From TrEMBL:
Regions of compositional bias (Basic and acidic residues) in chain numbering: 1-12
Function: Functions as part of axonemal radial spoke complexes that play an important part in the motility of sperm and cilia.
GO biological process: axoneme assembly; meiotic cell cycle; spermatid development
Alphabetically ordered keywords of this record: Cell projection, Cilium, Cytoplasm, Cytoskeleton, Flagellum, Meiosis, Repeat
Gene symbol of the encoding locus: Rsph1
Comp. bias (Acidic residues): 175-187
Record's protein name: Radial spoke head 1 homolog
Localization, UniProt: Cytoplasm, Cytoskeleton, Flagellum axoneme
Lineage: Eukaryota, Metazoa, Chordata, Craniata, Vertebrata
Amino acid sequence: EYEGDRNSEGQRHGFGKALLPNGDTYEGEYECGLRNGPGTYRFKNGALYTGNYLQNKKHGKGVFFYPDGSKYAGDWVHDQRQGYGEYLYANGDTYTGEWANNRRHGQGTYVYKETGSKYVGCWVNGIQDGPAELIHLNYRFKGRFLNGKPLGRGKFVFDIGCEQHGEYIQPVQEKDEEKEEEEEEEPPLLLEPMWKASEITKLTPWPSSDEE
């Protein structure tokens, strides 16, 4: 069902309201039969998008309310979260920063509602990866992350005015001798990186060369 403007060829063109066969509804701008420009799309499952369209795809600025109560407000490119935006998760966590292909990608800040801790730094395909800072209530960790875990040199900075320098080391899984003869190579179990402290100092400036 459609109620609204049409062009001389009879295509939806201008402002209109539509009820789609699947029960979704759209109210907004059309161009030559396609959703184009600002509009509001209500999904039958309770989700809602209000924002810009380009040839039937979410494109430009828009806000999406998901059925689980989460919400994304920001940039879209061809129906994907892409550019800069803020996501409020169902559990109250938030992410504010860069996106690519629907995932957290680039620079961004993730705040954990339960603890108040926040991760400020690099993301690759939705995973914490690269230089970053993990900020807790009265101390923070500054270093690098790989696949969501801290790895390599870094330091803990405590609000009382001191620092603990050291590195996160990836422990190696001990091989089981009896299994070595078996043909199939089992993927090694990834153990949690372990912090190895080297020294405690008073507060020091972070060398700029490490930022690269």
